Automatic annotation (TrEMBL), chains A, B:
<dbReference type="Pfam" id="PF00480">
    <property type="entry name" value="ROK"/>
</dbReference>
<keyword id="KW-0418">Kinase</keyword>
<comment type="similarity">
    <text>Belongs to the ROK (NagC/XylR) family.</text>
</comment>
<dbReference type="InterPro" id="IPR043129">
    <property type="entry name" value="ATPase_NBD"/>
</dbReference>
<protein>
    <submittedName>
        <fullName>Glucokinase</fullName>
    </submittedName>
</protein>
<keyword id="KW-0808">Transferase</keyword>
<dbReference type="InterPro" id="IPR000600">
    <property type="entry name" value="ROK"/>
</dbReference>
<dbReference type="GO" id="GO:0016301">
    <property type="term" value="F:kinase activity"/>
</dbReference>
């Protein structure tokens, strides 16, 4: 009867999978290791095994599956189902959907993880009942996806919303991409921990000295406890986060901006500061019309997003 | 037989109008003064007279007119046909389309001048045969409009692509909008002439001293002749222009960016410098896939854009 979807969230260290009903309710879920070191074909086999496990353990058969959605790091070509290249996975112009399609004889859809999360929030999360929304994830990098007039907006080369690489400070710190002053070189989790490590190395008096390894989590924690170096780092990073989001509002004029990713775990302090900066930098009517809210799907945004991709493409 | 369109380009000092066939070929055109000092209703009457003149002078009747398109400075509400407010015209939440609709009993459509120019380039100009494109006008300010999946993208409050107010330099010069370091405070014609005036006032040795009033045109001219102060101003402004355009590519990943507005008259030097900056700041595949070209409609982008708006809305 084809009343179930399968969603796969492919990452550098693990692959998560779910089987859901047509409304996106999870029937079974599972997480396996990626084992990227065994190469591209081995990963496809592991995904195929994961899909079989999900079907069998939920008491279903292949005839019950309407479609499979896959979210993967990019850049990739969603039309041809090809992962072009990606830092933590052994893919080079690799067609990941044909072997899965052929194995199961069901439609398989691929998109990059930020787009998949955007589709997930739009269909089943914090973006329900909107027409135009932008999803932004802030973790080691900064990525994004936009729903425009009810559809995912992929752009000409499928790279739209590469928001982590928007220039916000032309003479700012060097980004991994080679450019200077990119959004993610100023406001990502990596930017926060890098600035903290620089402060420690330069001998500043800070409670960050107590840590062997500093992630953005520790910097937020010490800032909250009153450490002035940490406070300064967080304040400056959140200002840039606010500026980047203000630019997204100025350009996309969306109904809602949904924020996900590890850095968002720091909670309300982030939203308060972003709102402050957005109010300073955007036109009043645009700023007040645009809600800025946390992801509703949270850590499930990858798998549920993959389900939502399969839903959207088979509508 | 309804085989003609009328396009109106409403400006602070003049109102231009054209009547065209269904392909956008101009049959007759006319330009009258706005006479904004006589108030909102007087402007509507002048537009009505202009439309009547265009119909009569081209030997047509009201029965020949399929629709009227109007481009106006914004912000405005294209759905309700209301001009919300605009600096150089006496409108406050003024319904400009109802009186014209009632007078002629034809459909009347309104949009802001940047969107109208974008629709014009998409339908009849440099954006033909694309699906995703961005139009940018650089003159006293910087504005823009985007076609996404073949449709003008207006956003939630109809203010999408307020690109002049994207922050590019957080501690940069103050913009008219009250924010600091906006794109148009760094790269518009006004920004260029303002920087030139500051250079003159500060006693710099420059050939700009020969002018009583300096617009961006004089600064480009003196830069070309070798004046080092002018060169520096132009180079810095064009770098910001390139950064702003690089951000648009990074976010919208369009097939083409079309540049219009008075500053573009300086010609190839602008495109060369923009390309250089875009290549530095964008991902290679996105930069090389996106053409950056001059407006094909030029000074007619307002009236022909209004025609294209009428075409698009009556399709």
């Amino acid at each position: 009867m084809k009343e179930y979807f399968i969603g796969i969230d492919l990452g550098g260290t693990k692959i998560a999978g779910v089987i859901t009903d047509l409304k996106g309710n999870i029937i079974k879920e599972n997480i396996i290791k990626t084992m990227a070191e065994y190469g591209d074909k081995a990963i496809v086999l592991r995904i195929i095994n994961l899909i079989e496990d999900l079907i069998i353990s939920s008491g279903k058969t292949l005839e019950d599956i309407r479609a499979v959605g896959i979210g993967s790091p990019g850049p990739l070509d969603p039309k041809r189902g090809i992962i072009i290249t990606t830092p933590n996975l052994p893919f080079e112009n690799f067609d990941i959907i044909t072997p899965i399609k052929e194995k199961f004889n069901v439609p398989v859809f691929l998109d990059n993880d930020a787009n998949v999360a955007a589709i997930g929030e739009y269909t089943l999360g914090a973006g329900k009942n909107t027409k135009n929304m932008v999803y932004i994830t802030v973790s080691t990098g900064i990525g994004g996806g936009a729903i425009i007039n009810g559809k995912i907006y992929r752009g000409n080369t499928f790279n739209a919303l590469e928001i982590g690489h928007m220039t916000l400070l032309p003479d700012g710190p060097k980004c991994n991409c080679g450019n200077y002053g990119c959004f993610e070189a100023l406001a990502s989790g990596t930017a926060i921990s890098k600035r903290a490590e620089e402060a420690v190395e330069s001998g500043r008096d800070t409670s960050l000295l107590n840590y062997f390894k500093i992630t953005s989590y520790e910097v937020f924690k010490e800032a909250e406890k009153g450490d002035s170096v940490s406070r300064h780092i967080i304040d400056s990073s959140l200002e840039y986060l606010g500026i980047g989001i203000a630019n997204i509002i100025t350009l996309f004029d969306p109904e809602v901006i949904i924020l996900g990713g590890g850095v968002m775990k720091a909670g309300q302090i982030i939203f308060d500061r972003i709102k402050e900066v957005v109010d300073q930098r955007c036109f009043k009517n645009m700023a007040s019309a645009c809600k800025i809210v946390p992801s509703a799907l949270g850590e499930k945004s990858g798998v549920i997003g993959a389900i939502a991709l399969a839903m959207m493409e088979t509508e």
